[in-house]
Amino acid sequence: MVRPNIMIVESDKELADSIGWQFAAESYDIQRTESGSQALRMLREQTPDVLILDWSLADITALELCHSVRGSSQTENMQIVVMSSNNNEEERIKCFSAGADDFIDKPFAPRELFARVNSMLVRRRESTVTKSIQFADLEVDPVSHRVWRSGSLVHLAPTEYRLLFHFIKRPQRAYSRQQLLDAVWGTRVKVDSRTIDVHIRRLRKALNRPGDKDLIRTIRAVGYALDLE
Predict the structure, then answer these.
(1) Across 137-157, average pLDDT
(2) I need a labelling partner for 117 at 20 to 30 A (CA). Which of 27, 49, 77, 130 fits?
(3) What sign has the CA pseudo-torsion 173, 177, 182, 187?
(4) What is the pTM of this model?
């Protein structure tokens, strides 16, 4: 069985050691660096399953690193978790908009971070089935994690893909924000329900070209559904 691989980008050696020890104890392969620019060079040589990075990097910003990862075909499907000591809603929104999949406030227990990352990877494996799924002019291939609309390839970050995959398995069903959080992040992970709204906006932007019908229906006081109406 292939061991999952993470890259830790953190200048605090003690924290990086604690994270590394936690994941190594669970049979993960570890890459580490203190530098965002060094991380980019390392990513060109080997693509980990998950990138865990500090918000306050000395050389390049976490946002720049997220944009770079999402802009490369080699790394666009990689999971990204941002760590920050600033419990700031605006900061979270910027991270999610730049392509981060999760955000965790410092200080945190390394086992909590492991639970979040492990949940991401388990759900990605569980989403793998053999047949493509279609709804309206959408097609999702769970093996390659590719999405097409009207025959054109749609580029989605991992979290938006998991959201869409959850929707398309039961189209027209309404889901509350909490149900979507539980399905995409897992019940053991605490994530603000407003995080869903950020990822729904990104999913809409990716799916809906000018003139296209919006396939994500907002249901007032309830949540969202994949629907033609």
Answers:
(1) 89
(2) 130
(3) negative
(4) 0.65
